[in-house]
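Workshop exercise sheet. Pairs work together: one partner reads the sequence aloud, the other fills in the structure field after running the prediction. Swap roles for the next sheet.
Pair: D.N. / O.F.
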Amino acid sequence: MAFRERLELKKPAEIDLMRRAGLVVEATLRAVREQAVAGMTTADLDQVARTSIAQHGATSNFLDYGADDAGHGGFPGVICTSVNDEVVHGIPGRRVLADGDLVSVDCGAIIDGWHGDAAITFAIGEVDEAQRELMRVTEQALWDGIAAASLGGRVGDISAAIERSITSAGEYGIADGLTGHGIGTAMHQPPWVPNVASRGRTAKLVEGLVLAVEPMVTLGTDDNRTLADDWTMVTLDGSRSAHFEHTFTLTSTGTWVLTAEDGGRARLEAMGIPFGGR
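Structure field:
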């Protein structure tokens, strides 16, 4: 009961607003992926995202995130652009993308005070089979985690499924200390959703709870460090990393992925999971 008292449970109309925010995020990530080519800078990708978010009548939840009361120190972009060994929180800037780069883009948007959050990883030009498989394994772990969620279950079911999906695929690192999270009137709120099996009792999965699930997987070890910019996290061994994320909820009829264009219907039904969107 204590878990439920701390969690923000949404009414259907509020989840509908989160769905609208989620569709803005989906459209923005799609625009960034489609326009990204060698020779562009990560700042160019950020501008694509800024335009998309504004055109859809939303605002960014990444821009100025973490700023102090005077407005200083906040994140300066509307997306995180993490390239190659950068796991998460890469700052858009002068870095020029080249063929063979692996780019993870994390994006969020707000509609009427309600948040959406998702991430994708894609290659610039051609990458080798190991990197293609890294992206596939990471995205599959995301969907396996979502598929493990059911009303009456617990957050730990999601975490265990993500870890099991990754470890069964081969020798991969699961970025240490980074987790998914609850989301709603804030981008980050309880409960936290680890990417490895949790010890002890975790929050119960109930209607109205909305979660952002986001495995971050490397071709090396679990270890990472934060650069001097106080944001960018990189793999300690220099190995490449991938990151996929969706925001989803559980309804009385099944699972609804708020940041997927089709609500996740095709992927969920292929996995034998009831679709719960509207």
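Discussion prompt: The longest helix spans residues 12-35. What would you look at next?
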